[in-house]
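User: Before I run my own analysis I want an independent prediction to cross-check against. Here's the chain; please return only the structure tokens and, at the end, one sentence I can use as a sanity check.
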Amino acid sequence: MVANNIKTNVYQMVTDRIIAELEKGKIPWQKPWTGCRSGAYNRISKNPYSLINQMLLKHNGEYATFKQWQQLGGHIRKGEKSEIVVFWKIYEKEEINDNGEKEIHKIPLLRYYNVFHISQVDGVEPLEETFNKIEPVESADKVIIDYVAREHIDFQEMKSNKAFYSPVSDKIVVPLKEQYQNINEYYSTAFHELTHSTGHSTRLDRLEDRKVAAFGSETYSKEELVAEIGSTAILNILNIETPQTFKNSAAYIQNWLQVLKNDNRFIISAAAKAEKAVNFILGTDKAE
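Assistant: Structure tokens:
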């Protein structure tokens, strides 16, 4: 259970620890969830095709050349038509300049190859997304469920490559729990987006300036600090913080502080806003 009275020293402690971590030097940030395949991609490399090829190809999902499907044990059904994937090939041409010196000129040439979609192939099964087995944390799920139900927020956990909060539609999207290596990172991500949602005009009204703020601007960066400190605080309150979630949060904060000229004072002001946001999420703002 979350205590009704959350002491301010929780935020002071979190803030002090974050600053101490930042003072150790550069911390690498890692996206906490694994990506899922989307759009058209090559069956062999698993890499998505370029934007222009995504527009050229008719289907989402797996494509490969005739030979690649053959190597996988498949065969193209009779009468199936191929599609094309284009790419640039650099042709090097050697010339002698006016000074009698050799020069290499690189000439880009547009080339293409034929590919077939998996729906045109027999003998090969589609790739399956591999996700992790996870154990949900009941106390953390309760915080999410109670808050989104109380505030009527559209909270969607879905197969996704991104997590976000949309103030316009008052909607949160987070990747599936199974996409995370560590379940605690899922809650870190979810609480980050929940903290953003407290800034809606019907709640703490903190996002008005951000609506017109450019990504990476000072206004945008400050709100990211609020959301990440809020997330870190909730993990701490629920006693589900891990060394990895804390280090990754510090790394994320470090990235946004660089926009703010690495001024740690912004963490202090962000922590005050984060405290209000967390109290609002947990419903303790009305209890004090």
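Sanity check: The radius of gyration is 25 Å.
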